Amino acid sequence: MTHPFSYNIIYSRRKSIAIQITRDGRVKVRAPYGCPSSAIDSFLAEKRHWVLAHLEEAEKTASLSGPALSDSERRRYIELARDIFTQKTAWYAQIIGVTYNRIAIREQKTRWGSCSSKGNLNFNWRLIFAPPEVLDYVVVHELAHRKEMNHSKAFYAIVESALPDYRKWRRWLSENGDTLWKR
Q: CB under 8 Å to 160, separation ≥6 — which residues?
């Protein structure tokens, strides 16, 4: 099957297929080891309009100058973040075996995500500029709080059961997270 865009496939120990549009407008497909190309093709066909819309957005974003974002651009990013986090949260909640209430997208200068005792989840929209695995880590981290409202060994065992390489992405966020504010 041919697609109206080119893409690179990156195989890893993930559990699902994901698409990343880089800031410079390249499409990266991340897939589990052994995932058949037919599954990747159908996933891309299903997400074709989403990819094309975000490639167009990447072109517009590339032409922006300076770190300031106008209100309309910020709203678009928040809506994109809402779509991404809604999908990832539903996926990982099933894997971890937890429920949650509402999802809110915020811009918090000190937090990437949070989970209330009532199961309300907050995610920072600026995470959409990070690698998709970082978003996976933040989602899994917050969902793990639905079982353990602390950062104990039991908590991190839950995180690791859903995302075995979480340490790599936690490290990426601590080392590179401040760059997500310089847009």
A: 166
Q: How far is CA 14 from the centre of its chain?
A: 13
Q: Choose among 22, 73, 81, 79: nearest CA to 51.
A: 22
Q: What is the mean pLDDT of residues 163-168?
A: 96
What are the tokens at 164? 């075995």
Span 55-93, pLDDT tens digits: 777 666 554 434 456 878 888 899 999 999 999 999 999
Q: Each residue of 11-39: b (16+ CB within 10 Å) or e?
A: eeebeebbbbbeeeeebebbbeeebeeee
